[in-house]
Amino acid sequence: MDPQDIQRWLHPDWRARLEAWWEGYDLANLNAQAREAKAMRAARREAKPNLRRLEAAAAIADPVGSADASTDALADTQPEPAAPDEDPEARQFEGLDIDRRGRPVWSVEQVRGAQMLWGDDFVGPGDAAFMVDAVRSFGLNPAKSVLDCSAGLGGGARAIVAAYDTWVTALEPSPLLAKLGMRRSQALDLDRKAPVMSYDPESFNPAGSYDLVLADRILHRVRDKGPYLDHLCECVKPRGAALLMDYVIDGAPESWESWNGWKDTEPLELYPWTAQRMTDELVQRNMDVRIVEDITAKLRRLIVERVRWLAEALQGGSLDRGLMAGLARELQLWWARLRVLGHGLRYYRFVALKPA
Questions:
Q1: What is the arithmetic mean of pLDDT over 193-217?
Q2: 3 state DSSP class of 347
Protein backbone atom coordinates (compact mmCIF):
# COMPACT_ATOMS: atom_id res chain seq x y z
CA MET A 1 0.00 0.00 0.00
CA ASP A 2 1.17 3.55 -0.66
CA PRO A 3 1.07 6.08 2.22
CA GLN A 4 -2.21 7.61 1.01
CA ASP A 5 -3.98 4.23 0.98
CA ILE A 6 -2.53 3.36 4.38
CA GLN A 7 -4.04 6.49 5.93
CA ARG A 8 -7.33 6.02 4.08
CA TRP A 9 -7.89 2.48 5.37
CA LEU A 10 -6.43 3.07 8.82
CA HIS A 11 -8.97 5.83 9.43
CA PRO A 12 -11.70 5.35 6.81
CA ASP A 13 -14.11 8.26 6.44
CA TRP A 14 -17.60 7.91 4.99
CA ARG A 15 -16.25 8.12 1.42
CA ALA A 16 -13.80 5.26 2.01
CA ARG A 17 -16.49 3.19 3.72
CA LEU A 18 -18.85 3.83 0.81
CA GLU A 19 -16.14 2.78 -1.68
CA ALA A 20 -15.45 -0.42 0.29
CA TRP A 21 -19.16 -1.26 0.40
CA TRP A 22 -19.65 -0.48 -3.31
CA GLU A 23 -16.62 -2.49 -4.46
CA GLY A 24 -17.35 -5.39 -2.10
CA TYR A 25 -14.11 -4.95 -0.14
CA ASP A 26 -13.74 -6.33 3.38
CA LEU A 27 -13.12 -3.19 5.43
CA ALA A 28 -11.68 -5.14 8.38
CA ASN A 29 -9.13 -6.82 6.13
CA LEU A 30 -8.19 -3.50 4.52
CA ASN A 31 -7.68 -2.01 7.96
CA ALA A 32 -5.48 -4.94 9.04
CA GLN A 33 -3.51 -4.69 5.80
CA ALA A 34 -2.99 -0.96 6.38
CA ARG A 35 -1.77 -1.55 9.95
CA GLU A 36 0.69 -4.16 8.73
CA ALA A 37 1.94 -1.89 5.93
CA LYS A 38 2.33 0.99 8.39
CA ALA A 39 4.38 -1.21 10.72
CA MET A 40 6.66 -2.31 7.87
CA ARG A 41 7.21 1.29 6.73
CA ALA A 42 7.96 2.37 10.28
CA ALA A 43 10.42 -0.50 10.64
CA ARG A 44 12.27 0.54 7.50
CA ARG A 45 12.35 4.17 8.62
CA GLU A 46 13.44 3.51 12.20
CA ALA A 47 15.22 0.15 12.08
CA LYS A 48 18.60 1.26 10.80
CA PRO A 49 21.38 -0.38 12.76
CA ASN A 50 24.95 0.72 12.26
CA LEU A 51 26.54 -0.77 9.13
CA ARG A 52 29.27 -2.24 11.33
CA ARG A 53 26.62 -4.31 13.09
CA LEU A 54 25.51 -5.86 9.83
CA GLU A 55 28.84 -6.14 8.04
CA ALA A 56 29.15 -9.76 9.19
CA ALA A 57 25.78 -10.48 7.58
CA ALA A 58 26.91 -8.81 4.39
CA ALA A 59 29.96 -11.09 4.46
CA ILE A 60 27.59 -13.81 3.32
CA ALA A 61 28.71 -12.71 -0.14
CA ASP A 62 32.02 -14.46 0.59
CA PRO A 63 31.32 -16.72 3.58
CA VAL A 64 34.15 -17.06 6.04
CA GLY A 65 33.98 -17.47 9.80
CA SER A 66 31.17 -18.90 11.84
CA ALA A 67 27.58 -19.46 10.85
CA ASP A 68 26.49 -17.24 13.74
CA ALA A 69 28.31 -14.12 12.54
CA SER A 70 25.24 -12.35 11.19
CA THR A 71 23.13 -12.97 14.27
CA ASP A 72 26.01 -12.06 16.58
CA ALA A 73 26.27 -8.76 14.75
CA LEU A 74 22.58 -8.05 15.27
CA ALA A 75 22.83 -9.11 18.90
CA ASP A 76 25.23 -6.20 19.48
CA THR A 77 22.51 -3.74 18.47
CA GLN A 78 20.75 -1.98 21.33
CA PRO A 79 17.10 -3.01 20.94
CA GLU A 80 14.14 -0.70 21.05
CA PRO A 81 11.16 -1.78 23.19
CA ALA A 82 9.03 -4.43 21.54
CA ALA A 83 6.36 -3.07 19.23
CA PRO A 84 2.80 -3.49 20.53
CA ASP A 85 1.06 -6.62 19.28
CA GLU A 86 -1.45 -5.19 16.79
CA ASP A 87 -2.43 -8.52 15.27
CA PRO A 88 -3.55 -10.98 17.96
CA GLU A 89 -5.55 -12.93 15.36
CA ALA A 90 -2.42 -13.77 13.35
CA ARG A 91 -0.58 -14.64 16.55
CA GLN A 92 -3.03 -17.51 17.13
CA PHE A 93 -1.78 -19.24 13.97
CA GLU A 94 1.84 -19.46 15.13
CA GLY A 95 1.21 -22.55 17.25
CA LEU A 96 -0.37 -24.53 14.40
CA ASP A 97 3.01 -25.28 12.78
CA ILE A 98 5.70 -26.34 15.27
CA ASP A 99 9.31 -27.20 14.45
CA ARG A 100 11.26 -30.13 15.83
CA ARG A 101 12.36 -28.04 18.82
CA GLY A 102 8.82 -27.14 19.80
CA ARG A 103 8.94 -23.58 18.44
CA PRO A 104 6.75 -22.04 15.71
CA VAL A 105 8.19 -22.58 12.24
CA TRP A 106 7.06 -19.03 11.49
CA SER A 107 6.33 -16.26 13.99
CA VAL A 108 4.82 -12.85 13.35
CA GLU A 109 8.23 -11.31 14.10
CA GLN A 110 10.02 -13.59 11.64
CA VAL A 111 7.50 -12.74 8.93
CA ARG A 112 8.29 -9.06 9.52
CA GLY A 113 12.03 -9.77 9.44
CA ALA A 114 11.74 -11.86 6.28
CA GLN A 115 9.90 -9.09 4.47
CA MET A 116 12.51 -6.57 5.55
CA LEU A 117 15.12 -8.81 3.93
CA TRP A 118 13.22 -10.00 0.84
CA GLY A 119 10.64 -7.25 0.25
CA ASP A 120 6.95 -6.77 0.95
CA ASP A 121 4.84 -9.89 0.27
CA PHE A 122 7.88 -12.22 0.10
CA VAL A 123 9.55 -14.45 2.70
CA GLY A 124 12.37 -15.84 0.56
CA PRO A 125 14.56 -15.02 -2.45
CA GLY A 126 12.70 -14.15 -5.64
CA ASP A 127 10.51 -11.09 -5.96
CA ALA A 128 7.47 -10.42 -8.17
CA ALA A 129 9.59 -9.90 -11.27
CA PHE A 130 11.42 -13.19 -10.62
CA MET A 131 8.16 -15.14 -10.40
CA VAL A 132 6.61 -13.48 -13.46
CA ASP A 133 9.73 -14.28 -15.48
CA ALA A 134 9.83 -17.88 -14.17
CA VAL A 135 6.42 -18.66 -15.72
CA ARG A 136 6.74 -16.50 -18.83
CA SER A 137 7.28 -19.40 -21.23
CA PHE A 138 4.08 -21.26 -20.27
CA GLY A 139 1.64 -19.10 -22.21
CA LEU A 140 -0.58 -18.16 -19.30
CA ASN A 141 -3.75 -16.21 -20.06
CA PRO A 142 -7.22 -15.59 -18.54
CA ALA A 143 -8.41 -19.04 -19.67
CA LYS A 144 -5.64 -20.91 -17.85
CA SER A 145 -5.07 -21.89 -14.23
CA VAL A 146 -2.03 -22.33 -12.00
CA LEU A 147 -1.47 -24.30 -8.78
CA ASP A 148 1.29 -22.79 -6.62
CA CYS A 149 2.36 -25.31 -3.96
CA SER A 150 4.81 -22.95 -2.22
CA ALA A 151 2.88 -19.71 -1.86
CA GLY A 152 4.48 -18.01 1.15
CA LEU A 153 2.49 -14.78 1.58
CA GLY A 154 1.05 -15.17 -1.92
CA GLY A 155 3.18 -12.39 -3.40
CA GLY A 156 4.26 -14.56 -6.33
CA ALA A 157 0.71 -15.74 -7.00
CA ARG A 158 -0.65 -12.19 -7.04
CA ALA A 159 2.20 -11.07 -9.30
CA ILE A 160 1.35 -13.83 -11.79
CA VAL A 161 -2.32 -12.82 -11.72
CA ALA A 162 -1.40 -9.18 -12.31
CA ALA A 163 0.93 -10.03 -15.20
CA TYR A 164 -1.16 -12.64 -17.04
CA ASP A 165 -4.71 -12.19 -15.72
CA THR A 166 -4.78 -15.92 -15.02
CA TRP A 167 -6.18 -17.87 -12.05
CA VAL A 168 -3.80 -19.05 -9.33
CA THR A 169 -4.63 -21.36 -6.44
CA ALA A 170 -1.90 -20.77 -3.88
CA LEU A 171 -1.09 -23.42 -1.24
CA GLU A 172 1.23 -22.80 1.70
CA PRO A 173 2.39 -25.25 4.43
CA SER A 174 2.49 -22.55 7.13
CA PRO A 175 -0.95 -21.70 8.53
CA LEU A 176 0.36 -18.28 9.61
CA LEU A 177 1.73 -17.37 6.17
CA ALA A 178 -1.44 -18.68 4.53
CA LYS A 179 -3.61 -16.57 6.84
CA LEU A 180 -1.61 -13.41 6.21
CA GLY A 181 -1.45 -14.15 2.47
CA MET A 182 -5.19 -14.68 2.18
CA ARG A 183 -5.81 -11.49 4.09
CA ARG A 184 -3.71 -9.62 1.51
CA SER A 185 -5.51 -11.24 -1.42
CA GLN A 186 -8.86 -10.31 0.13
CA ALA A 187 -7.75 -6.73 0.69
CA LEU A 188 -6.86 -6.49 -3.02
CA ASP A 189 -10.11 -8.20 -4.07
CA LEU A 190 -8.08 -11.16 -5.35
CA ASP A 191 -9.47 -13.81 -3.02
CA ARG A 192 -11.05 -15.60 -5.99
CA LYS A 193 -8.21 -15.18 -8.51
CA ALA A 194 -5.36 -15.69 -6.03
CA PRO A 195 -6.64 -17.41 -2.86
CA VAL A 196 -3.98 -18.52 -0.38
CA MET A 197 -4.76 -21.64 1.65
CA SER A 198 -2.87 -23.78 4.13
CA TYR A 199 -2.10 -27.44 3.36
CA ASP A 200 -0.05 -30.36 4.63
CA PRO A 201 2.51 -31.49 2.01
CA GLU A 202 2.62 -34.96 3.56
CA SER A 203 -1.06 -35.49 2.70
CA PHE A 204 -1.11 -33.47 -0.53
CA ASN A 205 -4.07 -34.36 -2.75
CA PRO A 206 -5.30 -31.31 -4.69
CA ALA A 207 -8.71 -31.09 -6.27
CA GLY A 208 -9.10 -30.11 -9.90
CA SER A 209 -6.57 -29.89 -12.71
CA TYR A 210 -4.25 -27.10 -13.78
CA ASP A 211 -2.35 -25.86 -16.82
CA LEU A 212 0.73 -25.21 -14.69
CA VAL A 213 1.75 -26.62 -11.33
CA LEU A 214 4.52 -24.69 -9.56
CA ALA A 215 6.53 -25.86 -6.55
CA ASP A 216 9.55 -23.90 -5.30
CA ARG A 217 11.74 -25.28 -2.52
CA ILE A 218 9.07 -27.56 -1.11
CA LEU A 219 9.87 -31.13 -2.19
CA HIS A 220 13.11 -31.36 -0.20
CA ARG A 221 10.96 -30.95 2.94
CA VAL A 222 8.59 -33.82 2.08
CA ARG A 223 9.53 -37.16 3.62
CA ASP A 224 7.33 -39.35 1.39
CA LYS A 225 7.82 -37.75 -2.02
CA GLY A 226 6.24 -40.59 -4.01
CA PRO A 227 2.57 -39.80 -3.20
CA TYR A 228 3.29 -36.07 -3.41
CA LEU A 229 4.65 -36.38 -6.94
CA ASP A 230 1.84 -38.80 -7.88
CA HIS A 231 -0.81 -36.22 -7.02
CA LEU A 232 1.19 -33.31 -8.41
CA CYS A 233 1.57 -34.97 -11.81
CA GLU A 234 -2.04 -36.19 -11.81
CA CYS A 235 -3.41 -32.66 -11.43
CA VAL A 236 -1.47 -31.35 -14.44
CA LYS A 237 -3.79 -31.08 -17.44
CA PRO A 238 -2.86 -32.84 -20.69
CA ARG A 239 -0.47 -30.50 -22.55
CA GLY A 240 0.08 -28.75 -19.22
CA ALA A 241 3.37 -28.42 -17.35
CA ALA A 242 5.05 -28.75 -13.98
CA LEU A 243 7.72 -26.27 -12.91
CA LEU A 244 9.72 -27.52 -9.93
CA MET A 245 12.58 -25.58 -8.36
CA ASP A 246 14.30 -27.24 -5.44
CA TYR A 247 17.45 -28.13 -3.56
CA VAL A 248 19.21 -31.31 -4.69
CA ILE A 249 22.21 -33.22 -3.38
CA ASP A 250 25.39 -32.87 -5.45
CA GLY A 251 27.90 -35.46 -4.34
CA ALA A 252 29.56 -35.40 -0.92
CA PRO A 253 29.54 -32.09 0.98
CA GLU A 254 32.78 -30.11 0.79
CA SER A 255 32.44 -29.45 4.54
CA TRP A 256 30.52 -31.79 6.78
CA GLU A 257 30.65 -29.11 9.48
CA SER A 258 28.77 -26.68 7.21
CA TRP A 259 26.40 -29.41 6.01
CA ASN A 260 25.49 -30.54 9.52
CA GLY A 261 25.25 -26.92 10.63
CA TRP A 262 22.74 -26.25 7.84
CA LYS A 263 20.59 -29.24 8.72
CA ASP A 264 20.69 -28.36 12.42
CA THR A 265 19.69 -24.76 11.71
CA GLU A 266 16.65 -25.69 9.62
CA PRO A 267 13.41 -25.84 11.62
CA LEU A 268 12.24 -29.05 9.92
CA GLU A 269 13.86 -32.30 8.82
CA LEU A 270 15.10 -32.28 5.22
CA TYR A 271 15.04 -35.04 2.61
CA PRO A 272 16.65 -33.77 -0.63
CA TRP A 273 17.07 -36.02 -3.66
CA THR A 274 19.67 -35.84 -6.38
CA ALA A 275 18.79 -34.10 -9.65
CA GLN A 276 18.93 -37.46 -11.43
CA ARG A 277 16.51 -39.03 -8.94
CA MET A 278 14.08 -36.15 -9.41
CA THR A 279 14.26 -36.50 -13.19
CA ASP A 280 13.77 -40.27 -13.07
CA GLU A 281 10.76 -39.97 -10.75
CA LEU A 282 9.07 -37.48 -13.09
CA VAL A 283 9.71 -39.74 -16.10
CA GLN A 284 8.22 -42.71 -14.22
CA ARG A 285 5.03 -40.68 -13.88
CA ASN A 286 4.80 -40.25 -17.66
CA MET A 287 6.04 -36.66 -17.62
CA ASP A 288 8.17 -35.41 -20.51
CA VAL A 289 11.11 -33.75 -18.77
CA ARG A 290 12.31 -30.94 -21.03
CA ILE A 291 14.60 -28.88 -18.78
CA VAL A 292 16.95 -29.86 -15.96
CA GLU A 293 18.92 -26.71 -15.16
CA ASP A 294 21.32 -25.85 -12.37
CA ILE A 295 20.40 -22.32 -11.19
CA THR A 296 22.44 -22.35 -7.98
CA ALA A 297 24.47 -19.31 -9.04
CA LYS A 298 21.28 -17.33 -9.65
CA LEU A 299 19.93 -18.14 -6.20
CA ARG A 300 23.23 -17.26 -4.53
CA ARG A 301 23.25 -13.94 -6.39
CA LEU A 302 19.71 -13.15 -5.22
CA ILE A 303 20.63 -13.85 -1.60
CA VAL A 304 23.86 -11.87 -1.69
CA GLU A 305 22.26 -8.86 -3.39
CA ARG A 306 19.46 -8.64 -0.81
CA VAL A 307 21.80 -8.97 2.18
CA ARG A 308 24.09 -6.29 0.76
CA TRP A 309 21.05 -4.08 0.15
CA LEU A 310 19.94 -4.62 3.74
CA ALA A 311 23.36 -3.74 5.13
CA GLU A 312 23.38 -0.49 3.15
CA ALA A 313 19.75 0.40 3.85
CA LEU A 314 19.81 -0.08 7.60
CA GLN A 315 22.52 2.36 8.61
CA GLY A 316 22.39 4.36 11.81
CA GLY A 317 19.37 3.49 13.91
CA SER A 318 17.75 0.72 15.92
CA LEU A 319 15.38 -2.20 15.60
CA ASP A 320 12.48 -2.96 17.89
CA ARG A 321 13.12 -6.12 19.86
CA GLY A 322 10.65 -8.32 17.96
CA LEU A 323 11.84 -7.24 14.53
CA MET A 324 15.47 -7.73 15.58
CA ALA A 325 14.72 -11.32 16.64
CA GLY A 326 12.85 -12.07 13.41
CA LEU A 327 15.53 -10.58 11.19
CA ALA A 328 18.29 -12.33 13.11
CA ARG A 329 16.54 -15.68 12.60
CA GLU A 330 16.23 -15.09 8.86
CA LEU A 331 19.89 -14.11 8.53
CA GLN A 332 20.93 -17.19 10.51
CA LEU A 333 18.90 -19.49 8.25
CA TRP A 334 20.17 -18.01 5.00
CA TRP A 335 23.75 -17.88 6.21
CA ALA A 336 23.61 -21.64 6.88
CA ARG A 337 21.98 -22.31 3.50
CA LEU A 338 24.45 -20.19 1.60
CA ARG A 339 27.39 -22.01 3.13
CA VAL A 340 26.27 -25.29 1.51
CA LEU A 341 24.79 -23.94 -1.75
CA GLY A 342 27.28 -24.89 -4.42
CA HIS A 343 29.22 -27.02 -1.92
CA GLY A 344 27.24 -30.25 -1.83
CA LEU A 345 23.78 -28.73 -2.26
CA ARG A 346 22.51 -27.19 -5.47
CA TYR A 347 19.34 -25.46 -6.64
CA TYR A 348 17.76 -26.89 -9.81
CA ARG A 349 14.90 -26.01 -12.13
CA PHE A 350 12.87 -28.86 -13.64
CA VAL A 351 10.30 -28.33 -16.41
CA ALA A 352 8.15 -31.34 -17.31
CA LEU A 353 5.28 -31.48 -19.79
CA LYS A 354 2.30 -33.79 -19.65
CA PRO A 355 1.53 -35.48 -22.98
CA ALA A 356 -1.92 -35.03 -24.54
A1: 95
A2: strand
